Amino acid sequence: MSSETNKTWIQQLWDKKVPQYLGTYFAVGFGLLQFVEFLTTRYDLSQYLVDKYLLVWFTLVPAITVLIYFSDQLNPKTDSGTIKWPKYLIIGNVIIAFVLAGLLFNGDTTQQTEVVKLTNEEGKEIKAFVPSLKKVKTIACFQFENLTTNEEQDWLGVALSYLLSTTLDQRPEFYTYSQYGLHPYYDQLGLPAFTVPNVGMQREIAQKSRNDYFSRISFTKKDGQFVFTGDLYSSKNGKIVVKINVQNADPYVAIDEIKQQIYDKIPNPLKTGESQIDLPSSTLISENIEALEYFTQSRITFYKNPTGLEEVISLAKRAVELDPTCAVCHYYVADPLYGMGKRNEAILSAKKAIKYGASLPERLQFFLKEMLYGISNNMDAYIKLQEMRRKMFPYEFSPYQRLLPLYKTNYGLDSTMVLIKEAIANGNVEKGLLTLYNLQVENEDYIEAEETLNRFSKEFPDREQDRMKYANIYEKQGRIAQAKEILLEEETIDPLNTTVQTRLAYLDFKNQDIESANDRIDKGIKESTTLSDSLNFLWIKGYFLRMRGQVDKSLKVYADYEQLGIKRTPLNVMLTRTLSVKCDLYQSINQPEKVDELLTEVSKYSPESKIAYKCNIQAGSLFRGYDMEIKDEEFLACGEYYKTFGDGFEEYFELVNSYRLGNYDKCLTILEEDKGRIKKLLADAGYFLADIYFKNGNIKTAKDIIEKAIEQKTDEPFYYYRMAVILENENKKKAREYLDIAMQYWSLADKDFIPFKKANGLAKRLLIYDEDKS
Hints:
Elements: H1 2-5, H2 9-15, H3 18-42, H4 49-59, H5 61-69, H6 85-103, E1 114-119, E2 125-130, E3 137-141, E4 145-146, H7 154-168, E5 174-177, H8 179-188, H9 199-208, E6 213-222, E7 225-234, E8 240-248, H10 251-265, E9 271-272, H11 289-304, H12 309-322, H13 327-339, H14 343-356, H15 366-375, H16 379-392, H17 398-410, H18 413-425, H19 429-442, H20 446-459, H21 466-476, H22 480-493, H23 498-510, H24 514-527, H25 531-547, H26 551-565, H27 571-588, H28 592-603, H29 610-624, H30 632-643, H31 647-660, H32 664-673, H33 677-681, H34 686-695, H35 699-711, H36 717-726, H37 732-745, H38 754-773
Parallel strand pairs: 3-5, 3-6, 4-6
Antiparallel strand pairs: 1-2, 2-9, 6-7, 7-8
Helix pairs in contact: 3-4, 3-5, 4-6, 5-6, 7-10, 7-11, 11-12, 12-13, 13-14, 14-15, 15-16, 16-17, 17-18, 18-19, 19-20, 20-21, 21-22, 22-23, 23-24, 23-25, 24-25, 25-26, 26-27, 27-28, 27-29, 29-30, 30-31, 31-32, 34-35, 34-36, 35-36, 36-37, 37-38
């Protein structure tokens, strides 16, 4: 007995085998932890299950220790009939552990089956049952790797990617990218187009394109049969989710079998009371394998040479000849025809696409109709189509995205955020949160924006971008140093990320460190290794030169941008992309004839869109005070154009037109009755809003608007110039200080640059005032 009591507590624990059994407990527990993690990943269970398990695992350590130590004494009752204290401790510990697990680590993703209402093809409301809010599943369907000895069969790998993507898209909560959709990410990473990179690079592309899963499938032929092997991976951790092993003489049937394997394994399928359309892949594009080849070759040709539209059309038309009912083939005849300015022919092909596309599942028909309404400029039908699409397929983000600018103008930012929250609730969690964040930053709801980012980080911990978006909040608040600190850390982690580098250049430019901004951009252009990087740097270089009034140099940079950009973008798209900035440059040096030339060139592709381009360009001229001549009949036609977008756009036109006519009282009335919608719409042209108040004699409000932009470290010198104008008769010393900042930006401006000439005139007046005072 004395020898027992003389032992140290460590020796007693060792004799009772407490350390040994605890080690076994932790070893077994670690194995169970991995199993729980596997289950949550494989079956998309709540992300909090692992946290709950860890809580119970560690909280039970005291109970396990006591159980081991007193194991030989834990009889149910003593002689007196009372329970021993170790038993109380063990029971209490277990209760506490499971109560805590039940109360803690709960969130939105733990919700059980949810009932969602949607509209079917007949317009009837039906119910959809889904296990959780994370309904939308995104899959990157990479080009199938050709393991045959015939390289001429490489096209089939691309075609199979598109087939798999299209057939998976029949299930409404699926979103897929085929090899065509993944093409831009290849350039960003410097990879050759239409090749099969290694698994690591595929995962990188899948993550950059924000896909939950990605496929890596190869094909070969054996005894006249196609043999498909491969895997579907999780983009989150790179683990295999589905093993693909299919053999069939018919590649279409094989794709259907692969689709079914994926359907069976990916969790949370949408379940409705109605039978869901699930057509075989042979009916979705063309069951004619030769037509499929010509169609695929047409798409590959387009992506490799976007300006070679004649060959693209020729190949697509050959596919149509082989299969006149191929709706997608007609669509991709219409698209390049429109790109060549053959609008009427494009409309005819688009209508054929809709006609033959009537046999497709409703979800796959929307993009056909979108094209027709887009190229025929039928905005009313386009808007109705998006509203219908949102009701029928609330899980798709595309209709919400397309309705976004319309809601902002017609209903205001608050209503727009309600729209996006609806998208999030219906399963578009990732894209919805990112869009909501942007709206909150735009609305200057910085606390809410940060909360949205925090939720995004919790929901998608492996997605890139998190910290850079925190930098956005700091930048918007004018906290340049804090924003720059985050971006510099990101640059250290990823020195090849051009987005970080251009953002840093913007911050320097805003902070009036113009030399550093230019040095960073020039270095980026010199060291660019991909087409995407070069285009990004050229665009911002052109922007900096434009803001500095260096018109000729800026136009040259944008010309270089176009020349480089048409290697991956059709010419008509590239011309519309640079139209507004080039028109702004020509307006700023009073060359309206050049603006007309640009509008004529762009209108070759879409004559009916000319009025839209012209209206927006003329409005921009008024905003910046270029004093361009605007004909009454031309601008009044803009009113009819804006009406097609809704009441909000009509009010916007009334404001701009009233300003044009010098009716500043009416401008003020419109702004006051509008309850802030148009003000927020014109947030990026605050100097224009300030000018309206200034010309109404409301100097304080005008000054407040400009001061806010300056506090946020605007990169627009117009704000500093406008503040100098406002202060000209109030505080000439402060006016000179603000004018000096504007003149620092415009120190190398072209002599004909109108804002620079006006600033010089103001400088002379301020100097006269100073001389008079002395």
